[in-house]
């Protein structure tokens, strides 16, 4: 309804920011190094999310912070880009498609996170969320950089929420809202985990001249 | 201005503000300086515009504008300006002050008044900041950058750190506080894992300067914490490998790290480094460690994907681990001495050996075992010695040729080393010599042997008064072809060592050869004490005890004796060190000499204490001769004396005896018969025994009789002189003098020629007269004796 419209508006406003010509940055580095940096950033975000999720779930309170809390997926949570796609299917995609999917997913996830940031109560959480959002934004930009250095075109425009059917209303009550947040974090975790694998694979594919240095440094 | 009460300060300020521009003197002139901030040393132009109407109290006539720069007057050019104003322009060609005030002044009531002021500042454009470097703090992900300010520009400068991410829009990262040259960019402006451009920009009124742009990924300059070593184990067991486990530092778990491990045993000179360890793995294995040794392990990590800018973390806190022990390996160096002893054909053996090296000991050696046969399974051989020392003295049957030595530790016993007790009958080596190799070492050289040698044994003992036995002062040289060896154990400088070399042949040990050496020599601790053995007129013989070995500090090369007196120069003589006495020749007799001895080694000399000696005046022989001659002379004199005593004639010659006049022949003489009465008288009468005992010369009255005298001669007529004849009669005393009462006129000299010396008085025949005798009547008084001689007759007459 109205809240959804406001949300959409906010998202659109906020999400335009990452789409600014981030590509104007002069990436003189080779594709190999950008991939490596993106991979490192993904790992970093994974690590940050662990801490953030712990703090946030504690903030949400029980039952969300219980380790064995494993709720079924509600239909309404589908607005968050789901990472639970068939892995074979995923691997079957081209590099371009995967990168594009990553780019879109993270842009939307960033939107949602920013909304979350605006609503959170404690200063510590706000600080952590701000930190995480900054890093996530960096990731989106990095992926854009990788795509351009590999010669792929950027996905057109942010994946706007209007793509989703507006039938999922805003959370009617507090509990369901918390549920939404829980699933947001969970999806984020899965996305990051999969992206790390993607970039690792990509690193090996990219011209070995650039990446060999890295592999040798890491092997025995 | 009127002083209002404190109650209306605001109104006062307001009124001041209103009044000043209207009526004040400041409103009448305006000073403009262009430019107000100039580079140091450049020209400045200023102009002062005076409006007469606005200035009250000015003197009529032309106003004269003058300039003052701080306190110094400067000249400007004045002209009429538009609208009845006076304008004065001033150009300062070289403005050298960093800050100065320029005043525009006019004559006012006879004094110069400042009516306008402008402040001029000068300086340099800002200097380029240098050496920009940044570090990312993993705690708050703030990027701290620091740089070096350039030279001071004397103008207020604002410094700012700028950074730009991928948006290519420079934003101010951070502003340093105060005069600091570092500041921290917050996380929200950073782009992690992406290139950023960072630089410092300094701006003042004269320009802007930028430092070198730093293009970095903030994560590359992150300061990592070191990993923590968790556990170390010996895996698999009984090998020389260990397995390590560690945890990476908190905050770096997501990073791909490459790590380095270093380890060291305390006796190792340097760390052993292992590189290329994956930080994420958490475990690693490494082999090649010694058994039973304490090792110290440390690790550090770095981002493996980082560029060259990334630095290593600090080394983690060390962790100690002692590898497990194993039975000792290898053979022990052993040396022995054997003597037959006891009646039952026993052999006394002193066996010595060296402790195994760390690589062979495989742990801490607990003890050593000596036995007669090697260890066989199941049976423990009889143990002769079980000791923790590296030597053992024991007795074995004389026929024993082999003993077995093994070392054991907590993990087991080593394979026994066979020690064959060979006899010392082999060929000795030649040409053994030892030279110093340092302060505490000796190089030993010898000639190559004729027969092949399996090993050499070198022994060294300190040469001292009480010989101690050093059981560890030996070493084995395993190279049979060597002709030189270095001794370093237990060699002290300034000590004499006796070095022996034994060649070990196949079936025998060679007879040892010996030599002595010092590793370092110095002057002796003191010189020997001189004693005087014998001294004479021109030579003195000195003797001394040779120095004991402990005091020598080196081989004595010579002794030098110095002697000097107050009149001669110092003379010296060098003596062979084997001698211990010396005779100094050519001394002057009866002189005081100071002598001392100097003992010299190759490395110095020591002087002894001075001995004072006085040479004799005469030689011994001379003295003896002198004494002998004196003695003889004395004896001769004694003999002479005795002879003299005995021999009268000699005595007479030398000491004639003066006869006693009473006993002389003169006393027996009597006066001769003079043909005169007196004589007859004399003959007729018996001479009475008249003896005169005393004679007194009287000068008294005639007729007075002296009291004491013999009452014989008073008033007697003067007797006729008559010669005296010796009376041969016993007991007839000799009469010497006549006591004459009267007519004694005392003594007087004979006026007439006196009788000659020793001449008897001649008696004239004619008596009574004669000119010979003036007082013939009386005997001449001057010859009392003579008178006495004549008196004898007179007395008789009188009696």
From TrEMBL, chain A:
<keyword id="KW-0325">Glycoprotein</keyword>
<comment type="subunit">
    <text>Forms a heteromeric complex with cardiotrophin-like cytokine CRLF1/CLF-1; the CRLF1-CLCF1 complex is a ligand for the ciliary neurotrophic factor receptor/CNTFR. The CRLF1-CLCF1 heterodimer binds SORL1 (via N-terminal ectodomain); within this complex, the interaction is mediated predominantly by the CRLF1 moiety. The tripartite signaling complex formed by CRLF1, CLCF1 and CNTFR also binds SORL1.</text>
</comment>
<dbReference type="Pfam" id="PF06875">
    <property type="entry name" value="PRF"/>
</dbReference>
<dbReference type="GO" id="GO:0097058">
    <property type="term" value="C:CRLF-CLCF1 complex"/>
</dbReference>
<comment type="similarity">
    <text>Belongs to the IL-6 superfamily.</text>
</comment>
<protein>
    <recommendedName>
        <fullName>Cardiotrophin-like cytokine factor 1</fullName>
    </recommendedName>
</protein>
<dbReference type="GO" id="GO:0005615">
    <property type="term" value="C:extracellular space"/>
</dbReference>
<keyword id="KW-0732">Signal</keyword>
<dbReference type="InterPro" id="IPR010681">
    <property type="entry name" value="PRF/CT"/>
</dbReference>
<dbReference type="GO" id="GO:0007259">
    <property type="term" value="P:cell surface receptor signaling pathway via JAK-STAT"/>
</dbReference>
<dbReference type="InterPro" id="IPR009079">
    <property type="entry name" value="4_helix_cytokine-like_core"/>
</dbReference>
<keyword id="KW-0202">Cytokine</keyword>
<keyword id="KW-0964">Secreted</keyword>
<comment type="function">
    <text>In complex with CRLF1, forms a heterodimeric neurotropic cytokine that plays a crucial role during neuronal development. Also stimulates B-cells. Binds to and activates the ILST/gp130 receptor.</text>
</comment>
<feature type="signal peptide">
    <location>
        <begin position="1"/>
        <end position="22"/>
    </location>
</feature>
<dbReference type="GO" id="GO:0097059">
    <property type="term" value="C:CNTFR-CLCF1 complex"/>
</dbReference>
<dbReference type="GO" id="GO:0005125">
    <property type="term" value="F:cytokine activity"/>
</dbReference>
<dbReference type="GO" id="GO:0030890">
    <property type="term" value="P:positive regulation of B cell proliferation"/>
</dbReference>
Automatic annotation (TrEMBL), chain B:
<dbReference type="InterPro" id="IPR052672">
    <property type="entry name" value="Type1_Cytokine_Rcpt_Type2"/>
</dbReference>
<dbReference type="Pfam" id="PF00041">
    <property type="entry name" value="fn3"/>
</dbReference>
<dbReference type="InterPro" id="IPR036116">
    <property type="entry name" value="FN3_sf"/>
</dbReference>
<feature type="signal peptide">
    <location>
        <begin position="1"/>
        <end position="27"/>
    </location>
</feature>
<comment type="similarity">
    <text>Belongs to the type I cytokine receptor family. Type 2 subfamily.</text>
</comment>
<dbReference type="InterPro" id="IPR003961">
    <property type="entry name" value="FN3_dom"/>
</dbReference>
<dbReference type="Pfam" id="PF06328">
    <property type="entry name" value="Lep_receptor_Ig"/>
</dbReference>
<keyword id="KW-1015">Disulfide bond</keyword>
<keyword id="KW-0325">Glycoprotein</keyword>
<keyword id="KW-0677">Repeat</keyword>
<keyword id="KW-0732">Signal</keyword>
<dbReference type="InterPro" id="IPR007110">
    <property type="entry name" value="Ig-like_dom"/>
</dbReference>
<keyword id="KW-0812">Transmembrane</keyword>
<keyword id="KW-0675">Receptor</keyword>
<dbReference type="InterPro" id="IPR010457">
    <property type="entry name" value="IgC2-like_lig-bd"/>
</dbReference>
<feature type="domain" description="Fibronectin type-III">
    <location>
        <begin position="524"/>
        <end position="620"/>
    </location>
</feature>
<feature type="domain" description="Fibronectin type-III">
    <location>
        <begin position="328"/>
        <end position="428"/>
    </location>
</feature>
<dbReference type="InterPro" id="IPR003529">
    <property type="entry name" value="Hematopoietin_rcpt_Gp130_CS"/>
</dbReference>
<keyword id="KW-0393">Immunoglobulin domain</keyword>
<dbReference type="GO" id="GO:0004896">
    <property type="term" value="F:cytokine receptor activity"/>
</dbReference>
<dbReference type="GO" id="GO:0005886">
    <property type="term" value="C:plasma membrane"/>
</dbReference>
<feature type="domain" description="Ig-like">
    <location>
        <begin position="9"/>
        <end position="105"/>
    </location>
</feature>
């Amino acid at each position: 309804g109205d809240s959804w419209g406001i949300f959409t508006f906010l998202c659109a406003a906020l999400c335009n920011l990452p789409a600014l010509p981030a590509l104007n940055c002069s990436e003189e580095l080779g594709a190999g190094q950008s991939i490596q940096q993106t991979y490192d950033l993904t790992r970093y975000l994974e690590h940050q999310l662990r801490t953030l999720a712990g703090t946030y779930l504690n903030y949400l309170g029980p039952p969300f912070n219980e380790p064995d809390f494993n709720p079924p997926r509600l239909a309404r949570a589908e607005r968050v880009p789901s990472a639970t796609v068939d892995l074979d299917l995923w691997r079957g995609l081209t590099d371009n498609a995967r990168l594009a999917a990553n780019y879109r997913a993270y842009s939307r996830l960033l939107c949602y996170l920013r909304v979350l940031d605006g609503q959170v109560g404690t200063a510590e959480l706000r600080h952590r969320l701000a930190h995480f959002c900054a890093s996530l934004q960096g990731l989106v930009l990095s992926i854009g950089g990788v795509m351009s250095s590999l010669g792929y075109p950027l996905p057109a425009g942010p994946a706007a929420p209007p793509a989703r059917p507006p039938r999922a209303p805003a959370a009617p009550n507090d509990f369901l809202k918390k549920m939404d947040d829980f699933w947001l974090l969970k999806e984020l975790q899965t996305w990051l985990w999969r992206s790390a694998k993607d970039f690792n694979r990509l690193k090996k594919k990219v011209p070995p001249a650039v990446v060999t240095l890295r592999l040798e440094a890491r092997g025995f | 201005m009127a002083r209002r009460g404190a109650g209306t300060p605001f109104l006062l300020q307001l009124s001041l503000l209103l009044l000043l521009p209207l009526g004040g003197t400041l409103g009448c002139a305006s000073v403009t300086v262009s430019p107000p901030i100039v580079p140091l040393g450049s020209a400045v132009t200023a102009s002062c515009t005076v409006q007469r109407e606005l200035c009250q109290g000015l003197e009529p006539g032309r106003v004269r504008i003058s300039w003052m720069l701080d306190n110094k007057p400067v000249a400007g050019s004045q002209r009429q300006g538009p609208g009845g104003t006076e304008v004065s322009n001033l150009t300062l060609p070289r403005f050298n002050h960093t800050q100065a005030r320029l005043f525009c002044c006019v004559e006012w009531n006879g004094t110069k008044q400042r009516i306008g002021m402008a402040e001029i500042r000068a300086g340099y454009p800002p200097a380029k900041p240098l050496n920009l470097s940044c570090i990312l703090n993993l705690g708050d992900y703030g990027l701290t950058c620091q740089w070096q300010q350039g030279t001071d520009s004397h103008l207020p400068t604002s410094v700012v750190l700028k950074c730009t991410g991928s948006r290519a829009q420079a934003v101010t990262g951070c502003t340093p506080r105060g005069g600091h040259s570092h500041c921290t960019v917050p996380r929200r402006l950073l782009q992690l894992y992406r290139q950023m451009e960072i630089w410092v920009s300094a701006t003042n009124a004269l320009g802007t300067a930028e430092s070198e742009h730093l293009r970095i990924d903030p994560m590359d300059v992150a300061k990592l914490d070191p990993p923590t070593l968790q556990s170390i184990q010996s895996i698999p067991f009984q090998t020389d490998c260990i397995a390590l486990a560690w945890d990476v530092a908190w905050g770096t778990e997501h990073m791909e790290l490459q790590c380095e491990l270093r380890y060291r045993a305390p006796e190792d000179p340097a760390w052993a480094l292992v590189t290329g360890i994956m930080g994420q793995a958490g475990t690693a294995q490494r082999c090649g460690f010694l058994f039973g040794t304490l090792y110290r392990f440390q690790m550090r990590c770095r981002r493996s994907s980082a560029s060259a800018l990334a630095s290593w973390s600090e080394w983690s806190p060390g962790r100690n681990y002692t590898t497990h022990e194993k039975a000792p390996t290898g053979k022990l160096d052993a040396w022995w001495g054997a003597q037959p002893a006891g009646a039952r054909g026993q052999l006394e053996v002193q066996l010595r050996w060296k402790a195994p090296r760390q690589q062979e000991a495989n742990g801490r050696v607990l003890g050593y075992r000596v036995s007669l046969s090697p260890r066989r399974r199941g049976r423990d051989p009889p143990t002769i010695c079980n000791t923790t020392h590296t030597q053992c003295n024991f007795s074995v049957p004389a026929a024993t040729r082999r003993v077995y030595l093994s070392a054991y530790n907590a993990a087991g016993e080593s394979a026994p080393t066979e020690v064959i007790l060979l006899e010392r009958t082999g060929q000795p080596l030649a040409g053994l010599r030892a030279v110093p190799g340092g302060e505490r070492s000796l190089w030993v050289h010898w000639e190559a042997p004729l027969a092949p040698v399996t090993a050499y044994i070198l022994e060294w003992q300190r040469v001292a008064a009480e010989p101690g036995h050093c059981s560890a002062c030996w070493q084995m040289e395993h190279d049979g072809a060597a002709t030189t060896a270095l001794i370093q154990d237990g060699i002290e400088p300034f000590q004499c060592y006796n070095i022996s070399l034994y060649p070990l042949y196949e079936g025998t040990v060679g007879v040892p050869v010996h030599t002595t050496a010092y590793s370092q020599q110095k002057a002796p601790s003191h010189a020997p004490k001189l004693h005087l053995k014998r001294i004479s007129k021109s030579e003195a013989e000195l003797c001394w005890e040779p120095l004991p070995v402990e005091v020598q500090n080196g081989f004595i090369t010579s002794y030098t004796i110095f002697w000097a007196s107050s009149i001669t120069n110092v003379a010296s003589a060098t003596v062979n060190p084997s001698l211990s006495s010396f005779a100094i020749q050519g001394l002057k007799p009866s002189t005081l000499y100071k002598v001392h001895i100097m003992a010299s080694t190759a490395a110095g000399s020591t002087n002894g204490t001075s001995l004072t000696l006085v040479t004799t005046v005469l030689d011994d022989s001379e003295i003896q001769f002198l004494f002998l001659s004196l003695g003889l002379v004395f004896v001769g004199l004694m003999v002479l004396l005795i002879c003299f005593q005995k021999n009268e004639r000699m005595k007479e010659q030398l000491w004639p005896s003066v006869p006693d006049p009473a006993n002389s022949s003169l006393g027996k003489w009597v006066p001769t018969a003079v043909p005169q009465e007196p004589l007859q008288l004399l003959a007729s009468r018996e001479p009475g025994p008249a003896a005169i005992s005393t004679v007194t010369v009287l000068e008294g009255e005639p007729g007075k009789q002296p009291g004491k005298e013999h009452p014989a001669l008073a008033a007697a007529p003067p007797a006729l002189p008559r010669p005296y004849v010796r009376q041969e009669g016993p007991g007839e005393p000799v009469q010497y003098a006549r006591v004459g009462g009267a007519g004694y006129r005392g003594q007087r000299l004979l006026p007439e020629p006196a009788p000659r010396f020793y001449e008897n008085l001649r008696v004239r025949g004619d008596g009574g007269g004669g000119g010979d005798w003036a007082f013939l009547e009386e005997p001449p008084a001057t010859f009392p004796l003579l008178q006495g001689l004549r008196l004898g007759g007179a007395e008789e007459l009188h009696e």
